[in-house]
Amino acid sequence: MCSHLTEHDELDGGYGYHYVTSNGLCEDPAPPPEIKEEIPTTPTEIDEDTYHMHADQFMESVHEKAEAVQEGREDVEVEYSAGVLSINFPPNGTYILNKQPPNKQIWLSSPISGPKRFDWLVVGESQSEKEGAGTGNWVYLRDGTTLSDVLRKELAITVDIDGSEENLQKKSIDFAE
Questions:
Q1: Between the CA of residue 104 and those of 47, 124, 125, what are the distances in Å?
Q2: pTM of the entire predicted model
Q3: CATH 3.30.920.10, domain 48-171, yes or no
Q4: Is 176 exposed, middle or buried (0-12, 13-18, 19+ CB in 10 A)?
Q5: Per-residue pLDDT tens digits for 56-73
Q6: What is the per-residue pLDDT across 81-95, written as a single tens digit (0 to 9) for each?
């Protein structure tokens, strides 16, 4: 039986955990304690224009990817109007994505994972880091799941999102000026 946990062992260069007994290492040690990643609890404060910029970019990207799937499958139907994207994706069912400007959220109704409300969250923009250098994503604050991950897992739609302010501004440059 293992008696206690050590964090350092000369055999592996000091990395990892090993359980030891009074006469040496355990042959079948228990796994190390789980280190849980902190789940964000508050969205990033953004103004209405910034919300629309990020939400519109995301919705347009999902719309384009869903239409590409529709072109390859007769049974998939995609409709996008007034900020509401409907994707009928047999055999799963119908997915509804819609903007919620009063809450600055994107809502998803999924026949697999249920309803979820995603907030814009920027990571990597702390006091010690350059302003505007963080990247953002739509995150379900209850469990830390991103909207991109849900769409990838349930619909095989990959949305490449670079939510940094700098890159969004680059994408909107009008070269005719």
A1: 9, 21, 20
A2: 0.68
A3: yes
A4: exposed
A5: 999 999 999 999 999 999
A6: 998 999 999 999 999
